[in-house]
């Protein structure tokens, strides 16, 4: 058993009996850590307020190899992202990002890129102009960090460069100009290969270009990016299906966003 210190963000909390909580942290050094916070719901607990969902701080814990639950020694709050927390839309999206990280990250596997992405996303979420667009940016960056990033430039079947093409729309029996995106194949298909996946999405070439831009843009440039209603709808559909395919989960917070916001 060794004392360890790491930065951490609370990505999930679960009540345990009357006074305790099981906390899931995401950390740069240890990946996902589950730990018991004993007595944290007691009014006398010095950790009480600091272990709220989405809080970012320095975690001290006793690391025991091959144990599902670790013991928390201390947690010093560094940022509670108050401006995000005071806005219903922003905190709801913040919970969705935490659930997404929780759904895909394995315990004990470190991925400092995912930690930095989550922390900087919460900082930027506090003053983002277009919160759903920020969410699409988080999704594509997160998929890249997790090793599931879709191919957006070359055909995933024949490797030719993909440009907009007339794609058959089965449901409408019309042809519309667009790019075929296959969730199953993991990216775009060219005009010759589009029929290989009957379930492929057709998105506007502009939506595909926007997705490339979201993938590479730093957060401080995001408030300059503009997206049309069509871009929003298409990217939400494509990324949502892609995430569902890789997490094999129906994310509760995403359903909540769809029904309430
Ligand atoms: Zn092709």
List keywords for this structure.
26% strand; alpha+beta; binds zinc ion; 5-stranded mixed barrel; single chain
Explain what you see:
The chain is an alpha+beta fold and 261 residues long. It has a domain at 2-80: Nucleic acid-binding proteins (OB fold (Dihydrolipoamide Acetyltransferase, E2P)). It contains 7 helices and 9 strands; from the N terminus they run E-E-E-E-E-H-H-H-H-E-E-E-E-H-H-H. It has a 5-stranded mixed beta barrel. Strands 6, 7, 8 and 9 form a 4-stranded antiparallel sheet that branches. The chain is elongated. Mean pLDDT is 90; it is low at 168-174. It binds zinc ion.
List the helices and strands and how they pair.
Elements lengths: L1 E15 L3 E8 L3 E7 L18 E8 L6 E10 L2 H4 L2 H17 L7 H14 L5 H16 L18 E5 L4 E9 L4 E3 L11 E3 L1 H12 L12 H19 L4 H9 L1
Parallel strand pairs: 3-5
Antiparallel strand pairs: 1-2, 1-4, 2-3, 4-5, 6-7, 7-8, 7-9
Zinc ion binds next to loops.
